[in-house]
Design brief:
The complex is a heterodimer. Helices cover 34% and strands 25% of the residues of chain A. By secondary structure, chain A is an alpha/beta fold. In chain A, helix 13 runs parallel beside helix 15. Chain B is mainly α. Chain B contains 16 helices and six strands. Classes of the chains: A alpha/beta, B mainly alpha. The interface between A and B is large, with 49 and 37 residues.
């Protein structure tokens, strides 16, 4: 591809939030007629960059040049008027209006204050037709599936500033994870539309967690990590392993690491068996077996379906296919109650929103799960309760060691320990830990990992999710590898299993 | 509720202090305001075997409000609200009075008991309906309970045929207007309901589960709490409390007025709950605080009459006092107006700001600053 002048250039972008430097000195450029992927793990600064570009955030430092002229957007509307349109993950349209109305909403062709309905429908039909879509513009938007609604959202955004139907007014189109709720065929339909827009000279910024899609559709990519620019590459020049290295920030050989000796080698018989368990939009159907005393680690990039898998095993989300047996008995995963009754415990990665009740005390938070399973009529006797709470506060070294402290005031590590105590007190057979070490200090991290090892030695099964591969490697007997919302491999941990091996598996996505 | 542990005497005491200190202070202040206008305000006289006096009247006339507010407290603790209590008051009174009025002998105990049972049953039905809409259908509580708030008065009118039904029944008169052991009987009813509520919520795990559901609904679901069942229970309980209040009000006047019985009591009840220190966002609740809150409102109403505020403006006056009370409850406001000392001492939350802190609470405040800082870092 010939390299003309970039249509958009962002240089030295800095964006700070109180206490956090979300973007520091990031450069980004976009050429007309290219599809450009913005890559990075969650929290790398992708969304912030997009929001700065589209006028949602004001930038602290740096310049944005559009078509050679310096611009600065105070609002998304200004960005839109300048030719930068955005389509988000969720469709922001009115389902009850017709497709044509949705395309023209807010800029309907009018004469003497009255909307020219005929003209609007005609122009909408022409626009849809020009983009090669087969959509009846008079039908209500709600009569189409989500995927088509997404296409309409794109049609609407490229039609912006273009009420006479001549050429596109949009120079830059930002697609922020448009594919996350689409199935394979729908994604292809979206890609067709993207290619057509690209041929018309529109520069497309594409964000997706699915690596395959990036490699299928994109020409160039920019990689961010921790708010800084890692590099800009042609997609053809960088393979998936290389990309993952750039995103995570470690070279493969650096990750060749110790294998621990703490791990117990023998595990018991099967505890939990999932067959064909899956949920549309969450994770593709998978088979999984967890043995007694086994630590099963899940590895995969953020958004690869690790949490979704765990939530299905707890009934936090309802599966729409497959079945689960625990100890040979079928368990309906229709609600957490059922799973808890069968001995499953789940510490969510979102401590604040899905774990703690911040207004309650440490003691109350700790006994909550046990009390819930006993029902309200059978309170735990005070003496027994206080003894249990004191025991777990001591065992997990929760600080302050005050059962009456409000849990919302504890530090992150201690809050995590409170959640662990809450579930350990119920003596579960399977403990699901989703990112238990995220955002907590090094000391607490080590303590929690040690605890996992000793629990497994006592015969408790643990499903362990962590962003850091080393952590998963160190603790797990078996490692489940996820990619693009699919469980692609289950590797028995051993000396031959290394971080690089797992990263290769993630990158290749081979089913083994 | 539990025995204060040895390790945390000062903070625990500061907390209990905080919950009831300001509501009680306001109550005492309001009571004192009456003294210059009614010098014998605090005197209680024995006349004809009954105790009379302003204090007794406040409790007597405040009884229905206390009942409704106690029920409202547990609903609000789950993060909900119940606007239908006023209508439930009207329906219950209408049903009970119309049943009694159709009896040949209005003084027959059996008939009166049956009438009361009917009224309470109607209340339970209303509560089930509210609970069903909120917990099963997932309708916003404010909308779900609005239905009976609006339609309920129509139902009451239907029962009474659009008339005010008057009755003449001595046994029925007892609950709202009678005396027992020299005191108004309704005081005993209120005491019993409050006691039962406290036992139900604090001696079982119900209070904890309610607070958990109100404090973090998603976390409660993931911990296995059957929050639907709990929500239905609190709406039924709240409606039941309102139904008892309905019996009381109609008994006191020996009449059922579908239009005006319990009119706007839902708003007073919500106010009482807020004054008592229970957050409208749900979570922690305090029955004791609510009782004090209801007494504050009733005292305020009495005070407005005794100090001679013109009737046309008394609602404005009431609103002004309520604003002041609510501001006093806010630790931030206290810290701003009275300085960090008061904010820190009684609020316990803004202690970090103050330079001049009482020695006793200094350590506590420092400890909380410490943890707060840690949280931000992690």
């Amino acid at each position: 591809m010939a390299e003309p002048r970039p249509v958009l250039e962002m240089t030295g972008i800095v964006k700070e939030f109180p206490g956090v430097r979300a973007l520091s000195d990031v450069d980004f450029r976009l050429f007309p007629g290219e599809i450009h992927a913005l890559m990075g793990e969650n929290g790398a600064g992708k969304s912030t960059l997009i929001k700065v570009l589209t006028g949602v955030y004001s930038l602290d430092e740096g310049t944005i040049t559009l078509d050679g002229g310096s611009v600065r957007f105070g609002s998304p509307l200004q960005a839109q008027q300048a030719g930068i349109s955005t389509v988000y993950q969720e469709v922001n349209l009115c389902p009850n209006l017709s497709v044509a109305e949705n395309i023209f909403i807010g800029r309907e062709p009018t004469r003497m204050g009255r909307i020219q309905w005929k003209r609007m429908r005609k122009e909408a039909a022409e626009l849809v037709d020009r983009l090669g879509l087969d959509i009846d513009v008079t039908a209500p938007l709600s009569s189409y599936p989500l995927a088509v609604q997404q296409l309409v959202a794109i049609v609407r955004s490229v039609g912006t500033g273009d009420s006479d139907g001549q050429g596109s007014g949009t120079k830059v189109l930002v697609l922020d994870e448009p594919t996350s709720s689409l199935d394979r065929d729908e994604v292809q339909e979206l890609f067709r539309l993207m290619r057509r827009l690209k041929d018309e000279g529109v520069a497309i910024l594409f964000v997706s967690h699915f690596l395959d899609q990036i490699y299928q559709i994109c020409d160039r990519m920019t990689v961010l990590r921790n708010g800084t620019l890692v590099g800009e590459h042609m997609v053809a020049d960088l393979d998936q392993v290389g990309l993952i290295q750039l995103m995570i920030g470690k070279a493969l050989d650096q990750l060749e690491e110790l294998h621990d000796h703490e791990r117990r080698s023998d595990v018991g018989e099967t505890l939990l068996k999932a067959e064909g368990l899956g949920r549309t939009g969450g994770i593709a159907p998978f088979d999984l077996e967890i043995k007694k005393g086994e630590v099963l680690g899940l590895a995969g990039l953020l958004g690869s379906g690790r949490t979704e898998l765990a939530r299905l095993l707890f009934g936090a989300d309802q599966p729409d296919s497959g079945k689960v047996t625990i100890d040979g008995k079928h368990v309906s995963m229709s609600a957490p109650n059922a799973a808890i009754g069968a001995g499953v415990a789940f510490c969510s990665e979102n401590r604040k929103t899905e774990g703690l009740v911040p207004d309650l005390t440490v003691r109350e938070n700790i006994i909550l799960a046990l009390q819930a399973s006993r029902g309200w009529t059978r309170p735990i006797p005070v003496a027994q309760r206080d003894e249990l709470v004191a025991k777990y506060i001591k065992a997990l070294d929760i600080r302050p060691a005050n059962p009456e402290a409000r849990v919302g005031r504890l530090s992150g590590g201690n809050q995590q320990k409170v959640l662990l105590a809450r579930w350990l007190i119920t003596q579960p057979k399977l403990l699901i830990l989703d990112e238990p070490t995220r955002g907590i200090d090094v000391g607490a991290k080590a303590e929690i990992q040690k605890l996992v090892v000793s629990l497994s030695e006592e015969g408790m099964s643990v499903l362990y999710i962590a962003a850091e591969l080393e952590e998963v490697l160190r603790l797990s007997h078996t490692i489940g590898v996820l990619r693009d919302r699919r469980l692609v491999a289950q590797l028995a941990n051993g000396p031959e299993i290394t971080s690089s091996r797992i990263m290769e598996t993630i990158a290749s996505g081979e089913h083994q | 509720m539990s025995t204060p542990s040895v390790t945390t005497p000062s903070r625990w005491r500061a907390l209990t202090h905080h919950h009831l200190f300001w509501p009680v202070a306001v109550l005492v202040f309001l009571l004192l305001v009456n003294v210059p206008f009614t010098p014998d305000f605090f005197s209680v006289k024995m006349t004809g075997g009954h105790l009379y006096g302003s204090l007794v009247s406040i409790v007597l006339f405040g009884s229905p409000l206390i009942l409704v507010a106690v029920g409202m407290t547990v609903v609000i603790a789950t993060g909900g609200i119940d606007l239908s209590v006023g209508a439930v008051v009207a329906i219950t009174g209408a049903l009970a009075c119309s049943y009694i009025s159709h009896q040949a002998d209005q003084n027959a105990l059996g008939g009166v008991l049956l009438a009361m049972g009917l009224g309470l049953l109607a209340g339970v039905a209303c509560g089930l309906w509210n609970g069903f809409l909120v917990a099963r259908m997932g309708i916003q509580p404010i909308i779900a309970t609005l239905i009976i708030m609006v339609a309920g008065r129509g139902v009451a009118q239907l029962i009474t045929d659009g008339q005010i039904i008057t009755i003449d029944s001595d046994p029925y008169k007892l609950i709202g207007g009678g005396y027992w052991l020299t005191l108004p009987f309704s005081i005993f009813v209120v005491a019993a309901v409050v006691a039962v509520t406290v036992v139900l919520t604090r001696r079982t795990a119900l209070g904890l589960l309610i607070e958990s559901v109100g404090g973090n609904a998603e976390a409660s679901r993931l911990v296995g709490i059957r929050s639907r069942r709990i929500k239905i229970m609190v709406y039924v309980f709240c409606a039941l409390c309102a139904a008892i209040a309905g019996l009381m009000i109609s008994s006191n006047t020996s009449a059922a007025d579908g239009n005006n019985a319990g009119l706007w009591i839902e708003l007073d009840a919500i106010l009482a709950v807020v004054i008592g220190g229970t957050s409208l966002l749900g979570g922690r609740f305090s029955i004791g605080g609510t009782v004090v809150g209801a007494l504050v409102i009733q005292t305020l109403t009495t005070t407005i009459y005794t100090i001679g505020v013109p009737t046309q403006t008394n609602l404005v006056f009431k609103a002004a006092v309520v604003i002041v009370v609510c501001l006093l409850q806010s630790p931030k406001f206290r810290a701003k107006v009275f300085g960090a000392r008061f904010g820190g001492r009684f609020g316990g939350r803004s202690g970090a700001k103050g330079g001049a802190k009482p020695a006793a609470t200094g350590a506590d405040a420092a400890a909380s600053t410490d943890t707060a800082a840690k949280m931000e870092v992690s």
